[in-house]
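Q: Hi! New to this. If I give you a protein sequence and the SMILES for zinc ion, can you show me the bound structure?
A: Yes, paste them in.
Q: Okay, here:
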Amino acid sequence: MINEGIERPNIFQRGSIEVICGPMFSGKTEELLRRLRRAQIAKLKVEIFKPSTDTRYDATAVVSHDLNSIQSTPIETSSSILLLGSNTQVVGIDEAQFFDDELPVVCEALANKGVRIIVAGLDMDYTGKPFGPIPKLMAIAEFVTKITAVCMVCGAPASRSYRLAAGRETVLLGEKESYEPRCRVCFNLDK
Ligand SMILES: Nc1ncnc2c1ncn2[C@@H]1O[C@H](COP(=O)(O)OP(=O)(O)O)[C@@H](O)[C@H]1O
Ligand SMILES: Cc1cn([C@H]2C[C@H](O)[C@@H](COP(=O)(O)O)O2)c(=O)[nH]c1=O
Ligand SMILES: [Zn+2]
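A: Thanks. Here is the predicted structure of the protein with zinc ion bound:
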């Protein structure tokens, strides 16, 4: 038979990368949970990962600001996703901005093997700069969903996360006490 033994992608399980991004409180985790739940309803094998450093609501669950949740595996480095996500059909990754620079390579490798990858994360840090591996993931993704929150100053659609707390380090975990979503105009008010 022609092509016998040649490794080809399974067209019935075509891999892809989806990115869900936006500021804090825009609904990234809710959208991730919605897509993963639908995959579970379709009886697909689903694995969910988050950075082990993100312990805000729960050590193992991915939890939205409205406290919807799904069980996940906390991991330290993106290479663990290659090991743990190879024998699954759908991989969900939350808080992807905190992962190392290898995450796009890891996602590409799994997608090429036929895995559907759904990544959620902040596209910008509190200074408005691209955050971690998210911009590269947006470039190589088949589908990018960029969503907005509600600006806490004027009520317009908010694209940015304004830091209320003191501290200039890029990574500073927090919730409403430390951050609020703002539109471009209100984000730049005190600059
Ligand atoms: N300023 C805001 N704009 C939009 N949603 C908000 C805001 N403040 C609180 N929320 C709540 O946050 C929920 C989204 O939470 P979540 O999915 O965890 O967001 P993200 O993962 O993007 O931070 C919304 O459904 C809403 O109930
Ligand atoms: C803007 C910004 C945010 N963070 C932290 C704050 C939260 O712990 C997470 C984002 O969570 P969400 O699910 O998107 O609400 O990231 C940070 O460390 N640095 C920043 O610049
Ligand atoms: Zn505004």
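A: Residues 1-6 have pLDDT under 50 and may be disordered. Let me know if you'd like me to explain how to read the tokens.
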